[in-house]
Design goal:
Nucleoside Triphosphate Pyrophosphohydrolase, eight-stranded mixed β-sheet, NUDIX_hydrolase_dom, alpha+beta, disordered C terminus
Length: 162
């Protein structure tokens, strides 16, 4: 945990003397592409339009992986099988409506997507796109998220070999 905090500090300028990170939950949506290679869906954030994963605040009454799967439905219309164990986490700075920023740590769960619905709550607020693992890792700005995407791609390649 100490190494993770040190890495977060190096990547975001955060130190333990600063505020404690706020916790969020998210999913890394995956599916096999036409060639069998793993694909990752990214969506645009509402404010800055940068590429991100579906994520949000934990929800009362739901386990973290269930809340993360709910975000995938609300933000991208994705339905699938969500892993109950997090594949990792990453840090980023979230801009609030007040224009202040807060440090967030996102606990990420893998979502094996079965389908995308024709309509969903935030359909007109975001764009979504399926990327190769390499393209997705290059499209995101958060170094920790890029590392999680690459690790998921490497794990997917290993499991296809066996």
């Amino acid at each position: 945990m100490k190494r993770l905090r040190a890495l977060a500090g190096a990547l975001t300028g955060w130190s333990e003397r600063d505020e404690q990170p706020r916790r969020q939950v998210g999913v890394l949506p995956t599916r096999p592409g036409p060639d069998g290679a793993l694909q990752v869906m990214l969506i645009t954030s509402r404010e800055t339009r940068r590429w991100v994963i579906p994520k949000g605040w934990p929800m009362k009454g739901l386990k973290n992986y269930e809340a993360a799967a709910r975000e995938a439905y609300e933000e991208a219309g994705l339905i699938g099988r969500v892993g109950k164990r997090a594949i990792g986490s990453y840090f980023y700075r979230k801009r609030l409506k007040s224009r202040d920023t807060v440090l967030c740590q996102v606990q990420v769960f893998r979502l094996d997507v079965r389908k995308q619905l024709k309509t969903w709550p935030e359909q007109h607020e975001r764009e979504g796109h399926w990327f190769t693992v390499q393209e997705a890792a290059e499209a995101v700005t958060e170094v920790g998220l890029a590392a999680l995407i690459r690790a998921t791609g490497a794990h997917g390649a290993e499991s296809r070999k066996s």
